[in-house]
Design goal:
InterPro entries: Kinase-like_dom_sf, Pkinase_fungal
Strand order of the largest sheet: 2-4-3
CATH topology of the largest domain: Transferase(Phosphotransferase), domain 1
Helix content: 40-55%
Shape: globular
Radius of gyration: 20 Å
Protein name: Fungal-type protein kinase domain-containing protein
CATH class of the largest domain: Mainly Alpha
Mean pLDDT: 81
Strand content: 5-15%
Pfam families: Pkinase_fungal
């Protein structure tokens, strides 16, 4: 029985029947959602009918709202739920690889905000053959700096979990510093407008400046909880990048070897925990602070 508190949307679309990757990803997400509580409500029901070489999909799911409508602890809570959904899927072999604000959504159920990691169009499966570089990834303002290099743009940098988690931090910065109580700030009083117009390498350079200088962006005050969290994330990102560079130099790794590194589940957990240990995280996640 449907909850009377949940408004539902129905979306009808056609997909080529030979697009097996997307069908397999939808099926995999549903399977994972059956065994992981954080994924409950993430996978819509998808009845299907076929005709010719195309498949008719009629997904039914709760009416989703953009994460940019939220602010403060509500924004953080939904963002965090999407982070947990993402890492669970990644460990189970579904690589989202398109972390951007339009793909972070929410709906309300029984008075609680439910975060939804949406749109798997650019996703891949662990057992999928082919390159794992930057041939398919999210919009430039939200991409990890490793992927905004010339090598990254040529698809020569292996896309890892840490790149998506870094994208989550850029998403939070974009939303929390450019919007005020769910409304986009006027031009001139919001940061990062130029990120959307620069090419990938130039945008990466701008992110490096922000990471290095940590200068308070336009329209932001020092005590803003969102900025305090973002600043803590920037420190973590810079520290981890320095550590990887030092390890590479010590091991005398070639640049190509460094960009084709792998990571374990413990590496993924440690990266997320390093963000959770920041003061900004504690302030946003604890209602009493």
């Amino acid at each position: 029985m449907k909850s009377p508190h949940i408004q539902e949307d129905v979306m009808v679309f056609w997909e080529e029947a030979d697009c097996t990757n997307q069908q397999e990803i939808r099926k995999k997400v549903k399977e994972i959602a059956q065994v992981h509580e954080i994924l409950k409500g993430q996978a819509p029901g998808v009845p299907e009918a076929t005709t010719g070489n195309r498949v008719l999909y009629i997904p039914v799911f709760p009416k989703l709202h953009p994460i940019t409508e939220l602010h403060g602890k509500d924004l953080f809570d939904v963002w965090h739920q999407c982070v947990l959904c993402h890492i669970t899927l990644w460990k189970e072999g579904v690589y989202h690889r398109d972390i951007s604000p339009p793909n972070l959504m929410w709906y309300k159920k029984d008075g609680k905000l439910i975060g939804v990691l949406n749109h798997y169009d650019l996703s891949s499966l662990a057992n999928e053959s082919g390159p794992r570089g930057n041939e398919r990834t999210s919009a430039v303002p939200f991409m990890a700096r490793d992927l905004l290099t010339e090598r990254g743009q040529r698809g020569e940098v292996k896309h890892l979990y840490r790149h998506d988690l870094e994208s989550f931090t850029w998403c939070f910065a974009w939303i929390s510093l450019r919007y005020k109580e769910g409304v986009l700030r006027p031009r001139g009083s919001r940061p990062f407008d130029d990120w959307a117009t620069l090419d990938a390498v130039a945008c990466g350079a701008m992110k490096l400046v922000l990471q290095t200088d940590k200068e308070i962006p336009a329209g932001t005050h020092k005590g803003d909880p969102g900025w305090q969290f973002v600043r803590g994330c920037l420190v973590v990102l810079a520290r981890r990048q320095s550590l990887r560079t030092a390890q590479a130099e010590e091991s005398e790794l070639e640049e190509e070897e460094l960009t084709q590194e792998s990571e374990s589940e413990s590496d993924m957990d440690e990266f997320l925990k390093s963000l959770e240990r920041t003061k900004g995280w504690a302030k946003l996640s604890n209602p009493k602070q």
